[in-house]
Amino acid sequence: MRLLKAPLFFLLLCGFISYSQIKIGDNPQNIDPSSILELESTTRAFVINRVTTAQMNSIVPIEGAMVYNTDIQCLHYFNGENWLNLCEALGLTITNNPIVHPDTTIAITRVDNNINIEVDSITGLQIVDRSIRGDDIAGSAVNGSFHIQNRSVPVIKLIPSATPNQILKTNAAGTDAVWATPPIAPVAFGKVNGNTAVKIYPTTLVSVGGSTTIPSVSFIPPRPDGNYTIQLTISGENRIALLNQNPNGFTVEISDSLGNPPSSAIEWYFTIFDF
Q1: What sections of 19-109 are H helices per DSSP?
Q2: Which helix (DSSP H) or strand (DSSP E) does residue 251 occupy?
Q3: Reduced to 3 states, what is the DSSP secondary structure of residue 111?
Q4: What angle do CA 175, 176, 179 make, to 5 degrees?
């Protein structure tokens, strides 16, 4: 019976050793169940195998092996075919040569082991047409005196108003530009001496005729209708009265202060509004 117990003991011992874990350093009694080897120390470091480049190349280990190359001063690992330098494993080279545009758009500066990448300059070639709208620009960010070249923004670059015949003006506070209905402008106006035009506007659309006491103003071409407004003014204490108006024009009567026909031509003025 005793002879049978000894082999059984050694078999159990070997099985225990086959699945054992190793903890080196502090707290050897505490080891994670998933660990096969643990190192723990606050005063010592783990030093990996140190070799020269020649020594490293003479080793042909299994995939995943690691050494510290003292010539290159960096860790290397074996990928199954070659030793790879962990300091250059990515094989990444960064340049500031643009991919699409001929302009340099980023600046890359290297100081020792630090690489700084920042925007260098952006030109119109890098901005898609009509991709920047008003709400993308901070208020007062663009100063016309410094940031916009004179005569560089043509009318076609302005977003038109949805309402026809509006003008661009500042708001009441003077803080923003807005589209607005323009003030009512006269259709025609002029200065007349009797029945002779002294100065009228527009000369191609208005003509003066009639007599010195009953002069007339004609429209070329006629107005759409006769519902326009006429403002009349006469010099001195003389009188002027509207006799009639229609799409073709209007006629007035001029008299002196007593209501009698004047002995000579008198200056008078007209202004036409059509709402």
Answers
A1: 53-57
A2: strand 249-255
A3: strand
A4: 145
Average pLDDT score over residue span 52-75: 95
Burial of 11 (0-12, 13-18, 19+ CB in 10 A): exposed
200 phi-psi bin (left φ>0, alpha ψ -120 to 50, beta other): beta
Report if pTM > 0.70.
no
Residue 267 near residue 193, CB atoms below 8 Å: yes
DSSP state string for 122-133: --GGGS-TT---
What is the per-residue DSSP string for 22-83? EEEES-TT---TT-SEEEE-SS------EE-HHHHHT----TT-EEEETTTTEEEEE-SSSE
Whole-number Å distance between alpha carbons of 47 and 44: 9
Residues paired with 200 in a beta bridge: 190
pLDDT attached to residue 127: 79
> Looking at the predicted structure, is the pLDDT value of residue 125 above 80?
no
Q: 3-class SS at 256?
A: coil
pLDDT digits (tens, 9 = 90+) for 133-168: 777 777 667 766 667 777 777 777 777 777 888 888
The pLDDT of residue 126 is above 90: no
What is the per-residue pLDDT for 258? 93
In the chain, what percentage of residues exceed pLDDT 70?
Answer: 83
Helices (H), 60-176: none
Token representation of residue 19: 């699945």
pLDDT > 90 fraction of the chain, expressed in percent and rounded: 48
Say if residues 52 and 69 touch (Cβ distance below 8 Å).
Answer: yes
All structural domains of the chain: 50-88 (no CATH), 188-273 (2.60.40)
